[in-house]
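Whiteboard transcription, Tuesday session. T.W. wrote the structure tokens on the left side:
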């Protein structure tokens, strides 16, 4: 279970539901831009520190092991994911990091971002980080109630 941010092509006359549905139907074939990827890796290292990178014929991915933040980049979409391991101030720091990284993804790819957990474009969600932090807190509480151990509720 992860907190996800999605970046897809979207026209002004499309709703987010329409843009995401169109992206789902897109075969997303082709090689993503190596220049854009280099920009994303540089931005991620500025925000997160050292990251590991990997690539395949159709995608690039970076991982930040200390936080679990991952960025995947395809020809016509990108995604940021982070596990729901955090609550409180640690969640606030993670949210700040993923929204900073999201800004770099939007700038480098030209794809607007969407935060489905708070049902807002990333540009608006960034101005209301408490909504995302609340989502992390709710999931951490749910994990704890069910006896599921994560770094946020481990003793």
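and on the right, the sequence the group agreed on:
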């Amino acid at each position: 279970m992860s907190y996800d941010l999605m970046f897809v092509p979207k026209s002004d006359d499309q709703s987010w539901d329409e843009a995401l549905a169109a992206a789902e139907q897109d075969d997303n074939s082709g090689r993503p831009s190596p220049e854009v990827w280099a920009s994303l890796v540089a931005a991620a290292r500025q925000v997160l520190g050292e990251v590991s990178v990997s690539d395949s014929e159709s995608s690039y991915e970076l991982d930040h092991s200390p936080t679990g933040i991952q960025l995947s980049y395809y020809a016509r979409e990108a995604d940021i994911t982070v596990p729901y391991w955090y609550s409180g101030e640690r969640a606030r720091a993670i949210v700040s990091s993923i929204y900073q990284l999201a800004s770099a993804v939007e700038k480098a790819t030209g794809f607007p971002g969407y935060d489905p957990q708070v049902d807002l474009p990333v540009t608006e969600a960034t101005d209301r980080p408490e909504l995302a932090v609340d989502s992390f807190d709710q999931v951490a509480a749910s994990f704890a109630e069910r006896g599921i151990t994560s770094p946020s509720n481990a003793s």
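Someone added at the bottom: Residues 31 and 56 are 9 Å apart (CA to CA).
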